[in-house]
TrEMBL record:
Coiled-coil positions: 249-276
InterPro entries: CAP_dom (IPR014044), CAP_sf (IPR035940)
SCP domain segment(s): 118-224
Pfam families: CAP
Name of the molecule in the record: SCP domain-containing protein
Record's keyword terms, sorted: Coiled coil
Polar residues biased stretches: 56-65
Segments for region (Disordered): 41-81
Amino acid sequence: MKRLFSMILLLGLTIGAIFVFRLSLQEALVDVDIEELARYSAPKTTENSPEPAKTLAQTTKTTVPAQEVTPPTSHETETTPAFAQETIETTKKEINVPPPLTHQSPTPIGTLTVSGVLARTNAERKAQSQGDLALNAKLTTAATAKLQDMFAKQYFAHVSPQGKEPSDWVDEAGYTYKLTGENLALGDFSSDADLVAAWMNSPGHRANILKPEYTEIGVAVGKGMFEGREMWLAVQVFGHPMPVCPLPSEQTKQNITTNQNTLKQLQTQLTDKKQELDTYEPKNGDIYKQKVDAYNVLIAEYNALIGTTEQLVNQYNVDINTYNTCIANG
């Protein structure tokens, strides 16, 4: 009986040992399968193998730096920059016309000559330490035309019955002046000295003869019938020519205007692109970065044109100031 019990116990122990061994072997096989599966799911990469795709959690979010997106303040305004441009000063033309002089000589009527009137006039200037006046052909043409018109239309005045001014005769003769003046005389003069002396005794005519700024003169004298009497008419036309000053470049002015118009167009484009960037979502990714890059390129173009235009305006202003100074001092 005891022997039978021992055999049964031994058999049970043997069966138990076999069961435990198989269970351990099964767990080992399961572990091996999982490891092999893991190796298959994550194969090794080589230099020529493509990078494994990143999951959403692994993707790095790319954003555009803030300084690339935000434009400078000046570009956000609705107006283009204003450039301070100088202006060419209007040339001030001075015209001196004292009241016409009528003269009666106590001596018999004599002869007047252009050369004699010029010589006596310069003698008076020299006595007052003023430079001689040069006889100018265009001013003489103006004086002769005025004298002939007065005889033809029987008037003695600086302004003709048709309203023609002293400066009109000068302009028609082609003389470009800064200063001009006119002396008129009507009478029975005995000589050139008598005529010039009569002018010198009249404050307004004297001021014209001695005016330091005058450098040139035109003279015309003639004898003819005036209001039924034979008389002499004499005309002096004084002048200070307009100095030859280089005008600012017209091409530079046109380039400034063209650039300003282009800046207005770029300003509109920048405003539109800025609004588009402000409303665009998402503010990352290739498309957004392309828009930002295009905006920044436009800003660079805008700023470069501002710089170029500023240089043009500065040069133009220098040229204008040079011209204005030349005109003022000429």
